[in-house]
Amino acid sequence: MDPVVASASVVAASIAVGLGAVGPGIGQGTAASRAVEGIARQPEAEGKIRGTLLLSFAFMEALTIYGLVIALILLFANPFA
């Protein structure tokens, strides 16, 4: 494999993981803070809030996993090689 393509793939993989983790990380922090605030305001709605929170966490983590999959493809099954 060409060294330029290999180094560009490593840089692209690190960017994919980095950007793929920043957005969901910020979103999860915001969602958790709003959920805690909502539970503090209405303790009787804790079950609904928690269920919705966990579902949204799952969707946010899926975005992070997509970034990881793209990074692994670039590192091990490079389509540009």
Automatic annotation (TrEMBL):
Site (Reversibly protonated during proton transport): E61
Pfam families xref list: ATP-synt_C
Keywords: ATP synthesis, CF(0), Hydrogen ion transport, Ion transport, Lipid-binding, Membrane, Thylakoid, Transmembrane, Transmembrane helix, Transport
Subcellular location: Cellular thylakoid membrane; Membrane
Keyword Ion transport attached: yes
Database matches in SUPFAM superfamilies: F1F0 ATP synthase subunit C (SSF81333)
Lipid bilayer topology: Multi-pass membrane protein
Keyword Transport: yes
Task performed by this protein: F(1)F(0) ATP synthase produces ATP from ADP in the presence of a proton or sodium gradient. F-type ATPases consist of two structural domains, F(1) containing the extramembraneous catalytic core and F(0) containing the membrane proton channel, linked together by a central stalk and a peripheral stalk. During catalysis, ATP synthesis in the catalytic domain of F(1) is coupled via a rotary mechanism of the central stalk subunits to proton translocation.
PANTHER family: ATP SYNTHASE LIPID-BINDING PROTEIN, MITOCHONDRIAL, ATPASE PROTEIN 9
Family: Belongs to the ATPase C chain family.
Entries under HAMAP family matching the protein: ATP_synth_c_bact (MF_01396)
Name of the protein described by the UniProt record: ATP synthase subunit c
Gene source species: Pseudanabaena yagii GIHE-NHR1
